[in-house]
Design goal:
- Two copies of one chain form a homodimer.
- Chain A folds into two domains: 231 residues, FAD/NAD(P)-binding domain; 145 residues, 2-Layer Sandwich (D-Amino Acid Oxidase, Chain A, domain 2).
- The radius of gyration of chain A is 21 Å and the shape is globular.
- Helix content of chain A is 28%, strand content 26%.
- Chain A is built from eight helices and 18 strands.
- In chain A, the strands form three sheets. In chain A, strands 1, 2, 8, 9, 10, 11, 17 and 18 form an eight-stranded mixed β-sheet that branches. Chain A has an eight-stranded mixed β-sheet with strand order 5-6-4-13-14-15-12-16, sandwiched between helices.
- The first copy, chain A, is α/β, with parallel strands linked by helices and 383 residues long.
- Chains A and B meet through helix 7 and strand 16 of A and helix 7 and strand 16 of B.
Chain lengths: 383, 383
């Protein structure tokens, strides 16, 4: 049987895209040796359009704000479809400064965020400690972003796998090595590492940073994404006495750091940003840096269990924004380049993928985020 | 079948004791739910009578020096019996100081060690870096202990398991809850957690820090040992470009630290000393402290993979010395309290256990290290 569409990569983008495609009436297959166990598994699950807002990225900020707006309904839909609570937690975020220079950087960003109309307010050190009693006495103040939230990315992965199964999505536990094209140059399926081809009416390449490694298409078909390594730690404390009730981000002598508390007492601490190619080795220096910065902000982490140390690869793009849309190879679409915002962008990207495949217009927030930013594209939809 | 002797605990002490007993012609059984996977697995394998020498412990130092002298033959015997190279590596040790105060402590210890006639010489910072090029530029000098060596404790565990198997030692994968005594009050075997008794002609309690938890005997039968938690990290680098060629110990602002290089590029970093009862949780603060100190001495560890973070429980005794000999319960012997020196003391302790069981005199270095230091004892041997 030929699927209407095959998804190359079963991270949150591939899984949510396949679920959306299936709900739009398409038959969908996801190919991944270990669905949901790549960067989606390592991520922290912050839904943070405001704290991620950076100078010169107004375009991206608008996309992230729109993406955040999708989350309450998306989490509810997933909950209805699967009975799984994905841990969508509108807990807000506090950003704090370890030293006066960090404070100055946060103040500058705060002004920018406020000029963009984003919900953010300045906090004194005392106000920070009122919101987050576990903060170190030395914290020099910061800001509150009441609209930046979180989801449990691992519960999200589990729910998406279940939702896909329930919607009839097929899974192939293999790795795609190449896109298969016909005499007309259009995508007709994929070639599997184990051998053999999987025919499909269309192909969506959503393998994160590994997307451009796919063979079988002309050079330049895929937009320029690259792996940006991020170390993340998972700590564990008692669920009944959580150290933190809301996400704490911080700058520690110029180095960014976050601590995302889960309802079960776990705490996700991240993240480094390293240009090291396709390397997911957990390095001693990175673990040290994360612990050093996190305990500078919240000394109480010393007592928590260090449950996991991992590294994942963000799909970084030249302008830090994603690519969603058709490539220059007919019937080959792409959804990658989500960089630091893959979890946040999941619901909107899934909508976009479904729209692309069914010939509907893209959701307006995704306008301008096609791969034509960096590559020539064509058009083509499944029906 | 009734074994001549049952060993409660299959760490290096129980395994080496059982091997020695079997070689002395006794039938031996080792009871342990996971032989070799307790503190023996977490250990670093330093054979360091000189660098462990501490003020007021002359008695213990003499024991440790004698124990170190047993190692070349013991490693060779194990190699002959099993074909396994246990990684006995006469690489020497360098002890270095992170600051002038650390230097002063090392100098005082050095004087003490030299007064005891131990092989140790003072090194300038430059001399330290000549011996260990990977040392941080800020290291303030130290000392060399050319006779302090190492063994790969995990290879040791593997070889002992194999040697025991080859010598006919029986293994029972269970936990002992109690010593079983007869109407005469003498030990007759052990009771298993899974239910049922295991009869034996004699019992050797060698369950490390858990030894005093054994039921079935009068209070005070076992000497006072307690768990002293130690976090240890295992890093991994390239085998062909090892960061270190010899063991580095150091004091970092008063905190002790060691880095033990293995031939395969691995590096064991330890260790904390914590009084936390029977807790082997890996804690964020301890991992941070170890990394912080180790990279202060050898900055290059930042690039190594952090392969494992673990915690084990040293069997600490009131005077930091072991207890080997009969207890006050006839036919119940004990071998525990090895504290920081379990691997070093393994060959000598095994000799001692075999001597006790066969009614031979203890090896002279073990004189004075019976449990009668803290408890009343009796005598009794198997044959």
């Amino acid at each position: 049987m030929t699927a209407d569409v095959v998804f190359v990569g079963g991270g949150v983008i591939g899984l949510s895209g396949a679920w959306a495609a299936a709900r739009a009436g398409l038959s969908a297959t996801v190919v991944d040796p270990a669905p949901g166990r790549g960067s989606s598994w390592v991520a922290a699950g912050m839904l943070a359009p405001v704290t991620e807002a950076t100078f010169g990225e107004e375009h991206l900020v608008r996309l992230l704000v729109a993406a955040a707006g999708r989350w309450p309904d998306f989490a509810a839909d997933l909950g209805s479809a699967t009975g799984t609570d994905v841990g969508y937690r509108p807990c807000g975020m506090v950003v704090v400064a370890a030293d006066p220079s960090d404070r100055s950087v946060i103040d500058q960003l705060l002004g920018y965020q406020q000029r963009l109309g984003l919900a953010a307010r300045r906090l004194s050190g005392t106000e920070c400690r009122q919101l987050v009693p576990a903060l170190a006495p030395g914290v020099r103040g910061g800001a509150e972003m009441p609209g930046d939230h979180q989801v449990d990315n691992r519960k999200l992965v589990g729910a998406l796998l279940e939702a896909c199964g329930g919607a009839g999505v097929t899974f192939v536990a293999d790795r795609v090595t190449a896109v298969v094209t016909g005499p007309d140059g259009a995508a007709r399926g994929v070639h599997l590492a184990a051998g053999g081809d999987l025919p499909a009416g269309a192909v969506v390449a959503c393998a994160g940073a590994a997307t451009p490694l796919l063979d079988g298409v002309p050079p330049g078909t895929f937009p320029a994404v690259r792996p940006v390594k991020g170390h993340v730690l998972r700590l564990r404390g008692p669920a009944d006495h959580p150290l933190l009730e809301r996400t704490v981000r911080g700058l520690v002598h110029g180095r960014p750091c976050y601590l995302v508390p889960r309802a079960d007492g776990r705490l996700v601490v991240g993240a480094t940003s390293e240009e090291r190619g396709f390397d997911t080795t957990v390095q001693a220096g990175a673990v040290h840096a994360l612990l050093d910065d996190a305990r500078t902000l919240v000394p109480g982490i010393d007592e928590l269990e260090l449950e996991e140390s991992m590294a994942g690869l963000r799909p970084g793009s030249p302008d830090n924004a994603p690519f969603v849309g058709w490539t220059g190879v007919p019937r080959l679409a792409v959804a990658t380049g989500h960089y630091r915002n893959g979890i946040l962008l999941t619901p909107l990207t899934a909508e976009g993928i479904a729209a692309v495949l069914t010939g509907e217009p893209l959701p307006p927030p995704l306008d301008g985020f096609g791969p034509d930013r960096s590559t020539p594209t064509t058009a083509g939809h499944v029906r």
